[in-house]
Amino acid sequence: MEKLDFKHISYVIIALKISIISWLVWQFFHSTEAQTISFDGQFWMFCMAGFFAQIIDGALGMAYGVSCSTFLLNLGVPPAIASASVHTAEVFTTGVSGLSHLYMKNVDKKLFIRIALPGVIGAMLGAFLLSKILEGDTVKPFISAYLLVLGVIILVKSFKEPLFKDEIKRMAPLGFMGGLLDSIGGGGWGPVVTSNIIHRGKTPKLTIGTVNTAEFFVTFASTGVFLFFMGLEGWKTILGLIVGGVVAAPLGAYLVRFIRPKTLMFLVGVVIILTSLLSIYKSLK
After folding, report:
1. Considering the entire predicted model, what is its pTM?
2. Is 81 exposed, middle or buried (0-12, 13-18, 19+ CB in 10 A)?
3. Domains of the chain, residue spans
4. Angle at CA 217, nearest 5°, toward 215 and 220?
5. For 224-250, what is each residue's pLDDT tens digit?
């Protein structure tokens, strides 16, 4: 693992992106929906949704799924299509975001390995369980309640002088649970993993960059399982999210370098609290 370099991670991301792009292009041109897509005002609204959701995610290491899903549902996209579209587009946005963080050296290589591999395993298991056995809406309120408490703790800590650590222990279980809950809950890798690592004392910039880069592999794994069992539709939504998100991804990775650690902790805490309250509110309706 010591010989692992940023360029090696970048090569793997690029290779996986090429493979899924090739598959999606083939699927697109064999889809009857492709012939009816129009690049109208609605398409550009999807682009804006993807752009702003990715800016938030790239700068804070979380909230792409919940931001994107909220935008899409408000635009009238059916929940099932919104969920599938967000997961598919996220493969592209997290890939570009990960490459950007690697280029700007916002990634801790040891931490990356310790969360990415367990995260992939958890994501694949969660996607299978959600496709065949579980109902994601049943689990969401409990995840949201846990994150709400964690968000309050981080917010309180942001008003104190933080003590950062170079080495954070017991990352494998966190990565596994983050991937599992992300697939089952329709999002949550960033809030679960980023918030826990920052809470344990890791520098926010490296935490966000590392978690975002690992998220590509987690998303790639869960999306592959979802597509295998559930198929794909909603091309107009997917393309809009991809275009907006890919444009925004480098900007988010750039912004995180200039935000003070205490400010990042404060923003992370606020985003976790707001998104958790939103999820709990929706589950009680």
Report:
1. 0.75
2. middle
3. 6-284
4. 105
5. 777 776 666 677 888 888 899 888 888
